[in-house]
Amino acid sequence: MMFTEQYADKVIERVLGEQTYWDLTNRQTFVTDTYNIIRWWRKLTVALGYEDNDSPSMWHIWGAYQLLNAKTLPDWSELTALSIELLNDNLDKATSAQLNSYPDWLWQRASNELGEQWLNVAQGLNNPAKTYLRTNTLKTNASALQVELARENIECQLLPDTDTLEVTKYGHLFKSKAFSQGWFEMQDAGSQQIAPLLNVKPGLRVVDACAGAGGKSLHIAALMQNKGYVLSMDIHQHKLDILKKRAKRAGVHMLETRLIKNSKTVKRLKDKFDRVLLDVPCSGTGVLRRNPDAKWQLANNNIENLITLQGEILQRYSQMCKPGGRLVYATCSILPSENQQQVHAFLENNPQFKLVEELSLLPGVNTHFDGFYGAALERQV
Ligand SMILES: C[S@@+](CC[C@H](N)C(=O)[O-])C[C@H]1O[C@@H](n2cnc3c(N)ncnc32)[C@H](O)[C@@H]1O
């Protein structure tokens, strides 16, 4: 397997920055093909007859990608050895994990955990990701945002009964006036279903304890109509710095950030919040459409370490929830060991909490969006 330590999105961003003369169509083709080649890497290498540890020729990878998508190859010497018959012969002998382009360990783990659902989820996670926007209702509404973006040649459709737009024709989203005015945030439509589980109201005190760059904190602030208090915490200051900039652009002024330096930062906040969001670090297996390189970077023992960390965060950070308050545990994982099993273990040890709502989005099974899990727990008075 030939992979570098670099993240695909960063490499793509760098190349696009260098190739300033490419038009929008060229840029989109480059992004789509790069993500697809990473997504289908294992299937492509197997079709070409490579072993897992071989370093394949990139000409061959590109050629196989074209042929398997029913395209004709250009008459280049680097590609003369390739034919669709050769690829299909090799694929006839391939395993399900190879055909669906997953590492064996992940295929095995997910099949054990999800049973018959896994094949559909595996296929659902191989679809290219769509782009969704969350309207910042502190500044505008979804229809006005749609009209404003259309003026800049960015077409969107409104998802019924939501503030979510699906982008159907791309333009320079982040150079748009709507973006600089803070009218939207890019956020998957599945991810937009997590903050509502908190059932926030204006005036409440809310902590988002694994806030990262603040996708969900900003959503919470909008749902609270900018009234009350949101504390966004993380162990990485650079993420909180991005969050502060985003909050400023979004016109959010009831939010503070705080770096978690040690266990005291959280202990001091015991019983202080009406709502607690724990959007814990996870395998990211629900968002493989967006980050297909994670398939090749993850390892089974990373997931085991994450499961231990998630359990610790849930146990320690739940202390910040007041009696009568609500806690939401969330992941972007499709694995029950990071989701339902964590919550059930927590409830067994903490009978003062009761499960009141549970959301499980499984691509290919019950959603076209990314895979997310959320459980809302209420702390009894
Ligand atoms: C799933 S991401 C959060 C995404 C974010 N909520 C959003 O909506 O954009 C998980 C976050 O947890 C943070 N994290 C990792 N370990 C942590 C810990 N022990 N306490 C708090 N945050 C932690 C990571 O830095 C990461 O930003």
Give a brief outline of the structure:
The protein is α/β, with parallel strands linked by helices. The chain has 16 helices and eleven strands.
Describe this structure in words.
Pfam families: Methyltr_RsmB-F, RsmF-B_ferredox. S-adenosyl-L-methionine binds at residues 234, 279. Residues 121-381 form the SAM-dependent MTase RsmB/NOP-type domain. It is a single chain. The model has no long low-confidence stretch (mean pLDDT 95). The protein is globular. The protein contains 16 helices and eleven strands. It is of the alpha/beta class and 381 residues long. It binds S-adenosylmethionine. S-adenosylmethionine binds next to helix 11.
SSE layout and pairings?
Elements: H1 8-18, H2 24-39, H3 41-47, H4 58-68, H5 84-92, H6 96-99, H7 104-114, H8 117-124, E1 132-135, H9 142-151, E2 155-158, E3 164-169, H10 177-180, E4 184-186, E5 205-208, H11 215-223, E6 229-234, H12 237-250, E7 255-259, H13 263-267, E8 273-279, H14 294-297, H15 300-317, E9 321-331, H16 340-349, E10 353-361, E11 372-379
Parallel strand pairs: 5-6, 5-8, 6-7, 8-9
Antiparallel strand pairs: 1-3, 1-4, 2-3, 9-11, 10-11
Helix pairs in contact: 3-5, 7-8
Bound molecules: S-adenosylmethionine.
S-adenosylmethionine binds at residues 209-216, 234-236, 239, 260, 279, 281, 313.
Keywords: Methyltransferase, RNA-binding, S-adenosyl-L-methionine, Transferase
Protein name: Methyltransferase domain-containing protein
GO molecular function, one term: RNA methyltransferase activity
